[in-house]
């Protein structure tokens, strides 16, 4: 399902909602948010249980965003992912990145059936340039075994 065009299209968007971001600054989702901001992306945190994250306003859902995001990175538990994808479609967000570990069959099917550009089961930090450290090695290894779309 992942295509090079979907990955490149998502990464061209400069305003990204980060759905499922944790309040814990040591969490993977918080690390994704920080790294994307360091790479020049404007991120908008989405967590229904937090008012602020990393010193900035957090929004309870995609419908409440102050501006339309070009894409949404989904970092939720798989049982929540389909509802986030449906919310994205309702909010007019057509580019979805379902981070590995967040993927659900229902979410992937919804994206396919509704013409959403979705990247699934991949780590965004392997693709958002510049790719550094462990993620660069992981991407090299994935390319070696044909797991990176060409």
Description of the molecule:
α3 (78-90) packs parallel to α4. A hairpin with a 2-residue loop joins β3 (52-53) and β4. Strands 2-1-5-6-7 form a five-stranded parallel β-sheet, with helices on both faces. It has helices spanning 4-12, 28-38, 78-90, 105-113, 133-144; strands at residues 15-19, 42-46, 52-53, 56-57, 71-74, 95-99, 117-122. The chain is α/β, with parallel strands linked by helices and 150 residues long. The protein is 36% helix and 19% strand. It has a single domain (4-144), classed as NAD(P)-binding Rossmann-like Domain (Rossmann fold, 3-Layer(aba) Sandwich).
In CATH terms, what is the fold-level topology?
A: Rossmann fold
CATH superfamily membership: NAD(P)-binding Rossmann-like Domain
Strand order of the largest sheet: 2-1-5-6-7
Computed structural class: alpha/beta
Question: What is the straight-line distance between the termini?
Answer: 12 Å
């Amino acid at each position: 399902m992942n295509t090079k065009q979907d990955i490149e299209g998502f990464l061209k968007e400069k305003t990204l909602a980060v759905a499922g971001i944790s309040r814990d600054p040591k969490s993977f989702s918080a690390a994704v948010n920080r790294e994307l901001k360091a790479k020049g992306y404007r991120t908008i945190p989405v967590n229904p249980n937090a008012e602020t994250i990393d010193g900035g306003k957090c929004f309870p859902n995609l419908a409440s965003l102050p501006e339309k995001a070009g894409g949404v990175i989904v970092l939720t538990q798989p049982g929540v992912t389909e509802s986030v994808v449906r919310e994205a479609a309702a909010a007019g967000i057509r580019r979805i990145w379902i981070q590995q570990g967040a993927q659900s069959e229902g979410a992937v099917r919804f994206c396919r059936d509704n013409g959403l550009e979705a990247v699934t089961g991949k780590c965004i930090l392997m693709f958002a340039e510049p790719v550094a450290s462990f993620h660069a090695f992981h991407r090299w290894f994935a390319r070696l075994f044909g797991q990176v779309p060409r």
